[in-house]
Amino acid sequence: MMSRDTVRLCLAEIFGTFTLVFAGTGAIVINDTHGGAITHVGIALTFGLVVMAMIYTVGDVSGAHLNPAVSLGFWASGRLPASRLPRYLISQIIGALSASALLKLLYPTHATLGATLPAGQPWQSFLLEVVLTGILMVVVLTVSSGPKERGLTAGLVVGAVIALEAMFAGPECGASMNPVRSLGPALLSGHGEHLWIYLTAPILGAFGGVGLHRGLQ
């Protein structure tokens, strides 16, 4: 039987990841269905703002990873025990799939449900996702203590980096930086043709970010 702390951690990651994917990809879907009313800038800000909000909401419970690449990065950095890693990954997958399933129910005719797809060459998106996630991981590790963010500014800093990266790289690669953010829409919409990019590149980027962060210490 799971302990109360484990249940709280799993619920925090399910809720946080659900909210991230529902709000972020929901902004893409609604932008498409309402003639670009939200705009690319609005979508980028949505992703940044929802991550910021979730850090302040569940950061004290689970660290608000909301992202398998971040959880794997914490594990690689020695801040997250291997025994706890599956709880994060499974919870994040559940949260993301639930969000995409709800969007599918709300917008059954939308073609992609906000899936991340390369605008140019796949290798360009792959490299962009590696670099973007590496930068994100360095920032997350810098503003965290153990597997959790610390201080009042952590949410602002991490949310701002995500919004910034989505702002300039989103039109090219989608600026996913998060395997489950891409997994949910891909599975529910059937657009998994480039999913390998968004499952592998963020994880490689996170490991690279861990190495860079060590070098900066």
Task: Write a short abstract of this structure.
This protein has helices spanning 4-33, 39-62, 68-76, 85-106, 122-142, 154-173, 179-189, 195-216; strands at 144-145, 148-149. The chain has 217 residues and is mainly α.
Question: How would you describe this structure to a colleague?
Answer:
It is a single chain. By secondary structure, the protein is mainly α. The protein contains eight helices and two strands; from the N terminus they run H-H-H-H-H-E-E-H-H-H. The protein has a single domain, classed as Glycerol uptake facilitator protein, CATH 1.20.1080. The chain has helices at residues 4-33, 39-62, 68-76, 85-106, 122-142, 154-173, 179-189, 195-216, and strands at residues 144-145, 148-149. Strand 1 and strand 2 (148-149) form a beta hairpin. The longest helix has 30 residues, at 4-33.
